[in-house]
Amino acid sequence: MMNRQNLLQQLRPSVRHAVQQFVRRLQLLSRWSVAGSRGVANRWLCVSLCLTAFTACDLIDYHPYDVRVDGAHGINARSMARIEAATSGRDSVRFVLISDTQRWYDETLAAVRSINARTDIDFVIHGGDISDFGATQEFEAQRDILEKLRVPYVVILGNHDCLGTGADAYRYIFGSPDFAFNAGDTHFICLNTNAFEYDYSTDIPNFPFLSADLSALPSGIRRTVVAMHAQPKSEQFNNNVAELFEYRITRYPGLAFCLCGHGHHTQLNEWFGDGVLYYECASAKHREYLVFTLKSDGGYSYEVVSY
């Protein structure tokens, strides 16, 4: 069993010092036996000083699921506006898919540096699970790394991002879990597909959103890409409506392919025998991301980049 001295050695110096000061003041308090109002007043003064030792060192922190967020927020809307402005009128774009950065902060930073070293990328899609436990500080830390990207980025909601109050932190930092934008003549749809995390009690996938989005599609769109965290047939997806989902997304013009994460490995699937391919990106642990090039002739190519 760890004794007090060993426990103190495990603390960072500033915390260890504050704890030692707190213990000394409690010991001092325990020696005081002066009766009367003066003694009571002194005891309260000592307790106040003990508490000050903690608050002065910023040792009292918020609950990990407190959603008071510092720093940049509303990121997806900001990024979508930048993407649409930068690619307006174009018939070819190149973008990156990364996913499941979760607890791999060093690897995420390495991915950002790798992407920044290129000059041919228009934007980045993060396939979800930016956090591991849905804690606010996880969102903030990963966001701060992604903010170093030189190109705009959007982040999809992952199943780990739904833990605790993660979905609330996600909404504040990034925005609605269902969103869409245009990059040149290509329409990108980004969806929350984590039905299991919502106990199948919410419209996931959000068919009303798809209906409204399709009806408002601007003219000139000739190609569509659908991105999500969990693909059909996974344990997160509501597979009771998987075939309906496939039918609905194929109503969009020129469905090129689908994007996803969640599985932590780079792989390619065709689930419904209709030619629609689902490209899954590996987690940051494997230090891989995908680069897609949508070509002016209507075709596309992709590459797996190791960094």
Note the beta-strand portion: 15-25%
Integer average pLDDT: 87
The shape is: globular
- CATH class category label of the largest domain: Alpha Beta
Q: Which regions have little confidence, pLDDT < 50, spanning 5+ residues?
A: 10-19, 32-38, 44-59
**Oligomerization state of this entry?**
single chain
Give the strand order, joined by hyphens, for the main sheet.
Answer: 4-5-6-7-9-8
Q: How many whole angstroms does the radius of gyration measure?
A: 25 Å
Whole-number count of domains: 2
Number of strands: 11
> Order of helices and strands, N to C?
HHHHEHEHEHEEHEHEEEEE
- Determine the structural class based on helices, strands and strand pairing: alpha/beta
CATH superfamily of the largest domain: Metallo-dependent phosphatases
| Biggest pleated sheet | 6 strands, mixed
According to CATH, the fold-level topology of the largest domain is Purple Acid Phosphatase, chain A, domain 2
Number of helices: 9
* Name of the CATH architecture of the largest domain: 4-Layer Sandwich
- N→C terminal distance: 43 Å
Question: What's the helical proportion of residues?
Answer: 25-40%
Descriptive notes:
The radius of gyration is 25 Å and the shape is globular. The strands form 2 sheets. Strands 4-5-6-7-9-8 form a 6-stranded mixed β-sheet. Strands 3-2-1-10-11 form a 5-stranded mixed β-sheet. It has 2 domains: 52 residues, no CATH class; 232 residues, 4-Layer Sandwich (Purple Acid Phosphatase, chain A, domain 2), CATH 3.60.21. Helix 6 runs parallel beside helix 7. With 307 residues, the chain is α/β, with parallel strands linked by helices. It has 9 helices and 11 strands. A hairpin with a 5-residue loop joins strand 10 and strand 11. 36% of the residues are buried.
